[in-house]
Amino acid sequence: MSEKRGFFITLEGPEGSGKSSQARQLVQALRRAGRRVTFVRDPGSTALGRRLRRVLLHADVRGMTPLTEALLFIAGRVQLVEELIKPALAKGRIVVCDRFHDSTMAYQGHGGELDVAWLQVVGRRAIGGLMPDLTLLLDVPTEAGFRRVGRHRDRMERKAQAFHRRLRRGYLALARREPRRIIVIDATQPKTRVAQHVQQIVFKRLRMGRVLPLRDPTVRPRPPTIVGGPAGGRRGPPLRVTRPTEKSYGMV
Ligand SMILES: Nc1ncnc2c1ncn2[C@@H]1O[C@H](COP(=O)(O)OP(=O)(O)OP(=O)(O)O)[C@@H](O)[C@H]1O
Ligand SMILES: [Mg+2]
């Protein structure tokens, strides 16, 4: 592949696992290192994506089926890929995206009990197979994540605990299937530790990217890498809830 392209990183994980905080810190670290970074979130970041996000996450929207939900998330993602992600990658930029296709697989597929094989095909085809080069899966037990989220819950966060347990298991199953792309990080660790792991992994992969193309079919997959040890149900102190706003997701 001679086409000049950047590097596509996504952050994934259950509610309150620290995706948005870690994404922000990663973007800052990459920019400090002199890299050109585009920071987006899915759903969101485009005019249509922001509207879809409101419909998808607003607690007052009731009765949406998992399939409707999946297709709306995918629609927003198509727009995000075409409007922002592809052009940024074509310019050689690093793209950091808060959630992406794996969220649909975990939430609507595993959590919502849709046909996951079908959803994989439809979800990937819709975005023309543009999958991340690297995905950081921040893993926390459901209860630990919810203790961080606080009392104000959006439509997805209001779903039953069983839904959230299924989606966490779903995420881990996705990581087992794609151990080279998806790196699992124990996100029960303190924020600064998690940030260190995230940055180490990203910086290492970026350097390797030049020598060893990530899409090289001769690269043998490795077993899932769990950074920071298995996630335990450790209790932390009560946490301050700071919700990122759309403004946090600057385009450049
Ligand atoms: N490792 C951590 N330890 C303790 N608290 C954390 C950690 N990471 C994030 N938090 C806190 O948990 C809350 C949720 O974090 P954040 O919004 O980054 O998570 P998220 O995965 O983006 O959540 P959501 O799924 O709701 O988008 C915030 O108050 C944040 O400061
Ligand atoms: Mg978030």
Question: What does this 3D model show about the protein?
Answer:
With 252 residues, this protein is of the alpha/beta class. It is built from eight helices and six strands, in the order βαβααβααβααβαβ. The chain has one domain: P-loop containing nucleotide triphosphate hydrolases (Rossmann fold), CATH 3.40.50.300. The chain has a six-stranded parallel β-sheet, sandwiched between helices. Helix 2 runs antiparallel to helix 3 (66-90), helix 3 (66-90) packs antiparallel against helix 4 (101-111) and helix 4 (101-111) packs antiparallel against helix 5. The longest helix has 25 residues, at 66-90. It is globular and about 45 Å long.
| Overall tally of structural domains | 1
Distance from first to last alpha carbon: 26 Å
Q: What is the number of E strands?
A: 6
User: Judging by the overall fold, what is the CATH architecture?
Assistant: 3-Layer(aba) Sandwich
Helix fraction by DSSP (H/I, runs of at least 4): 40-55%
Q: Can you list the ligands bound to this structure?
A: adenosine-5'-triphosphate, magnesium ion
- Please state the overall shape, judged from the principal axes of the Cα atoms: globular
The CATH first-level class comes to Alpha Beta
Poorly predicted runs of 5 or more residues = 209-222, 230-245
CATH topology: Rossmann fold
What is the overall pLDDT average?
86
- Rg on CA atoms, Å: 17 Å
Question: What is the CATH superfamily label?
Answer: P-loop containing nucleotide triphosphate hydrolases
Question: Given the helix and strand composition, which structural class is it?
Answer: alpha/beta
